[in-house]
Amino acid sequence: MKQKILYVDDDQDWRILVADFLRENGFDAMVARDASEAMAFADRETFGLIILDINLAGESGPGLLEFLRLNFSSVPVVLFSGQILDSLSQHEMFKQGALEYLHKGSLPELLEAVKRCLKIE
């Protein structure tokens, strides 16, 4: 059975690119454009992993991370964002429960992070 991954990003081009890439690599990818949509999906679907852009238009990526950690603590979260985080900000996101932080750009690096978090060889 394919691992189901939720990718949350307000940028439509990135949603399409990442979802297609994940599907090409054997995953069942769903996308959400904002925190509200992500919360609705998370309430009705079971995900093996969530990939989250932390700079969502008009919404709080860190707030969504907090919601996900409180309600779905067993689901790993990878941050994949165009926002460059300094080491203190990264540390705070890891304290909130993110497992990895990647600067948006390299899909092969994202795939490696997905495999690490899902413990796939």
Overview of this protein structure:
With 121 residues, the protein is an alpha/beta fold. It has a domain at 1-83: Rossmann fold. The chain contains five helices and five strands. The protein has helices spanning 12-24, 35-44, 61-71, 87-95, 107-118; strands at residues 4-8, 28-32, 49-52, 77-81, 100-103. It has a five-stranded parallel β-sheet with strand order 2-1-3-4-5, with helices on both faces. It is globular, with a radius of gyration of 13 Å.
CATH secondary-structure class of the domain at 1-83:
Alpha Beta
Oligomer: single chain
Q: What fraction, in percent, of the residue positions are helical?
A: 40-55%
Distinct helical segment count: 5
Shape: globular
> What is the beta-strand fraction?
15-25%
In the CATH hierarchy, the third-tier topology of the domain at 1-83 is known as Rossmann fold
Largest sheet: 5 strands, parallel
Q: Tell how many strands the DSSP assignment holds.
A: 5
- The averaged pLDDT comes out at 88
- Report the order of strands and helices: EHEHEHEHEH
